[in-house]
Amino acid sequence: MKQIQEFSLHTHTKLGDGYDTVEDMIIEAQKNGLKTLGISDHFWAVRHDLQKYIKTVRRAQEKLKFHVLLGMEIDNPTPERLEMLYKLKRDYGFDFFIGALHDVPYGEKKYYVGDKENKDVLQSQGFQQMYWQTLPNLANDLFDIVAHLDLVKLTGIKTETLYEKEINNALKAFKLNNQIVEINTKHSKIENEPSDTILEKIVEIKIPVVFSSDAHIKNQIVYRFEEEQQRLSGMLSKMRYISKTTELLDFLKFRNSIHNR
Ligand SMILES: [Zn+2]
Ligand SMILES: [Zn+2]
Q: Measured between alpha carbons, how far is 228 from 191 in angstroms, rounded to an integer?
């Protein structure tokens, strides 16, 4: 089966923590036969010069005559920041935002789930529970796509079977907010993100999905899309798998119309 998804939305560039320029990424997207490329650098990486970020993306798009969607990947925002981000999305004309949970507040501090130094804290029941309980915070009008929702496995343990109630709550909230959940292929050689157990719930609740490579380097723009699409073909046929650009744009437009602020 050939790769059929016409776009890759979750990608990082040199403007953030990626390695390649926006132009390099576009050229690679063209080479891979994509119709659309999304650029979604981390908010923390580009926030200090948003104008530069936006201009660079838009200029590259014009120069190379390619369909590019302007996005950002944003961490679980505080309520005050959420309001600011709604305004920012509208004022700067962002096409999409990806919501993600990389850092979780626990006790007095915030911990990155991949923090190797604090493994004992991260693997504690309290922290694991906090991750799953925080996840529904990503359910809102702001985020069109929810990224790697079981990233907590970077802590080195798997607790999804212990927190089924929390996970169900999160998934239902994403569904209610008409959000897309990504199937992240970045670690898919070793690990499925989300796991098959969670993916089965996604099928059941009928949450729309897309494949994301989370590429930080140009040659990974469609990393393992083909393999994962093949592996999941049975499940995908029962899901709302958004694979065409027109379908994606319609979905984003629909979200904008009902979740407009
Ligand atoms: Zn991420
Ligand atoms: Zn990312």
A: 11
